[in-house]
Amino acid sequence: MLGPIAKEQQVRPFELRGVNVFTGNELDPTDEPDAALIFGGDGTVHRHLGTLALHKTPTLVVPVGSANDFAQSVGIDSVAQALAHWKRFCETRGNTRLIDLGTIQPLHRVEVAEMLPAAPHEDPDVPWQGESLETLHFVPDGRRCDLPPLGPRIELSQSRRGIEAGREASRTIHFACIAGTGLDAVVSRVTMLHPRWLRAHGGYVVALVQALARFRPPQMTVSLEMDGHWQTPVREEGMLIAVGNGPRYGGGMRLAHLAAMNDGLLDVCFVRQLSKLRLLRLLHVVFRGDHIGMKEVEYWKATGVRVHTDPVMELFADGEYICTTPVELGVCRDALRVIAPE
User: Fold this and answer.
1) Which of 96, 111, 158, 325 is within CB 3.0–4.6 Å of 106 for a Cys-Cys bond?
2) Are 300 and 163 found together in one domain?
3) Does 111 fall in a domain?
C-alpha cells in the first residue's frame, strides 16, 4: 500500500481476510508483491510508475488525491469503485489489463548526466567483482567446457547483474497522463504553491489566471515520429505543447481528448499564440475536448515527439516537475498492469 495521505478509515475496508497487506511509501525494484494499492492522486501514481512497470505489478489506484485523472481515465471514479475492483481481484485475479506509459528523455547533456545512475561501488563481499567473463568460465559464444564448472558463482553473478539491471530500468522516466511545457508548465509550477484543498477544487484554473499575467510565448520547435519517419510541423511561437498518453489532466481538462492508453501512440496538442483574453474565453471547451479542430490548435498522433523551446522551459508530467527542454517523449507499450474495469 503506497501513498502518504491515506486515512485509516479509507484503508481499513481494503484489509480483506486472507490478504496480507504491508504499508509503506516506497517500492524497491527487488520487491515482487502480488499487487500494489496506491492511495493518492496523479502525483503519487507518477512517483511509482518505474518500479511498477518493471515487474508489471497489478496496480489499483484509490482516488483520494487532489487530482485523480489517471484513476478516472482507467475507469475508477471513487473509493467505493476501487474497493469493488479490489475485492474482485482478490477473489479471481481476473480484472486486470495492460496499458501504455509515456517515456521522457532529456536531450541536453547536463540533464542526461544528472539522470544517469552513479557508478557501481566495489563490494568486498563479492570476490568475483571486476573479473572478466572468461575468468568466470563464460564467454559470448557460450559456457566454456574446458574448465571446472563454477555454477554457483555464475548464478550469483547473474543474479547480481539482474538486480542492477532492474534498478536501472526502474529509473526510466515514465508518465501516465499528460506531459507538457509552455504555459502548461508555468501553470503546473504555480499550482504546486497552492494548498492541497485548492488544488483539488479548481486549482489549475486559478493558477492559469495567475500565470497568464506574466507569460510570454516561447519559440517552439516540435518534431514528430510518424510511420518511422521524423517530420517537423511546428517552428513558431506557441502557448503550450501537451503530449498525452491519456486524455485528461488538471482535474478533468481533456487536452489530449482523443488519447487512448492502449494504442501505442502519443496524442500531441499544440496551441499556437493567441490573445490571453481569447484563451480564457476558450478555457471551458477544453473540459469537453471541443478545442480540437479550432484554428489555434494543431493535433496529431505520433510514436515519438521532440520538443525544443527558446527560451528553455520546464517540462511537467502528471503534475510533477521532470526536467527542462529540449526533450524527447516516447511510448512504452503494455507497460503497466492496472486493476480496473475490463
Assistant:
1) 111
2) no
3) no
